[in-house]
Amino acid sequence: MQACTPAIQGQAKTGKPSDRLIAHLDMDAFFASVELLRFPQLQGLAVVVGGRSKSIIQQMQALETRFGSHEAIDAQSMPRLAQYQGRGVITTASYAARAYGIGSGMGLMKAAERCPEAILLAADFERYREYSRRFKALIRAQGLAIEDRGIDEVYIDLSHCSHRDEAITVARSLQAAIFKDTGLSCSIGLAPNKLLAKLASELEKPMGLSQLHSDSVQAVLWPLPVSRLHGVGPRTAEKLKALGLDLIGQLAKSDPASLQARFGASHGRWLIEASWGIDERPMVLASEPISISRETTLERDMHPSHDRQALSERFTALCHQLAADLQAKQRLCRSVSVKIRNDQFKTSTRDVSFAEPTDDPARIRSWAGQCLKRFVFDRRIRLLGVKATRLSPRHLAATALADALRSNHQAATDPEQLQPVAASQHALWPELEPALP
User: Fold this and answer.
1) Under a CB-based contact definition with an 8 Å cutoff, are residues 86 and 53 in contact?
2) Which helix (H) or strand (E) holds 190?
3) Does the annotation count 204 as an active-site position?
4) What is the pLDDT of residues 142-161, one digit of tens each?
5) Alpha-carbon gap, residue 331 to 145, rounded angstroms
6) Cα distances (angstroms) measured from residue 258 to each of 203, 251, 335, 369
């Protein structure tokens, strides 16, 4: 490929004049670290969190009964990766486990080949959410504006700091306060934009505090593989590698026109800008969630007819968990969608909207059931998911209903009009679909 054009190059080197200072705070091995608080005897050991194997859960419950408490359980008695059978993936691995080349997103069976003696713990998302709320509350209590990026990370706007030394002091105080309150460590990256701040937070883990300046992009960013750019997934990385672009520096010097021809105008330009550390995205300070979802990958592919009862129980449980999430966040929904992935990895979704917002588990299950009737069940099922959208705060429910009625959304009040029920080869759990009042 040809060298980067001077126009792009000049813009990239200097960037836009900006007085922004963004911090990216990332909790260190979050799920595993929360588990180590519950099981301090596992400190320094290879620990993997992931999967929901019933046998693993039952084994841990039996051990708790036998030893009397989590802290008293003998580590040698705990489940090992070698025991696991299924298709679950690693949610988080402790740093001791990562030394064996295993980490988030890796299949548990594959991880077992690398470290069969690693201790396997089932994920406890309710516990993780509680710790997530605690560390975010500490940040907000300092009067800092944050962009919530998930259960274990946030961006923090520190542009009000008069100089970087002040920002470093704020960052250190946050690390200390979070550790004192929760017993958990976090790493923070400081930079003029979100792209570089996230990268900086990954440079020194755990409990690191790193800075990236626009003028250090070539020295720090360019020697890294392209996969380290936030937004470059495995597929994009493979495509770039096929073009001979293994490192970010190679990407920065590539021909923009060739990239845009290969990846599209928008994505191609973004790749070039990201490789030069350019990111003009604003902080998104609104904390209103746009959707809430629950899904599960089944331990084995289930047949729509033969495994009907088990599928029904799983599906109903997901709907109830989704309703509980809505209630915890004080949100109501006016749309529900269902996602199903079959044994050939084909994913399909169906959705339904309704006039009266709800967080009631029975009504969410019923509306989700309306979505089910629109699938053709001709393959075994690998994944089930339900999602609530068109969210509104609970205290605005009356206003939302009035607006819906004024808009005269007749289709939204009539599920038969909104999504006609087509005949399917396997009517899945039809008798469990109660009529809506």
Assistant:
1) yes
2) strand 186-191
3) no
4) 889 899 888 999 999 999 99
5) 22
6) 31, 11, 42, 48
What does the pLDDT look like over 201-218, one tens digit per residue? 999 999 999 999 988 899
CATH of 30-124, one of 3.40.640.10, 3.40.1170.60, 3.40.50.300, 2.60.40.10: 3.40.1170.60
Residues of the chain with CATH 3.30.1490.100: 291-432
Residue pair 75/129 in contact by the 8 Å Cβ criterion: no
3-state SS class at 356: strand
Which amino acid is residue 427, in one-letter code?
A
Q: Could you give the maximum distance between any two Cα atoms of the chain, in Å? A: 70
All CATH 3.40.1170.60 domain ranges of the chain, comma separated, are 30-124
Q: Which residues of 30-61 are buried (b: 16+ CB within 10 A; e: fewer)?
A: bbbbbbbeebeebeebbbbbbbebeebeebbe
**Active-site residue, from 147, 153, 273, 433:** 153
The yes or no reply on domain 291-432 and CATH 3.50.30.70 is: no
Strand arrangement, sheet containing 47-50: 90-93, 47-50, 119-121
pTM over 0.85: no
Q: Which residue has the higher pLDDT, 420 or 287?
A: 287
Structure tokens at 118: 């690693």
Instruction: To the nearest 10°, report the CA torsion of 232, 235, 241, 246.
Output: 30
Class of domain 22-28+127-217: alpha beta
For residue 414, give both structure tokens.
């009539």
Q: Report DSSP state, residue 433.
A: -
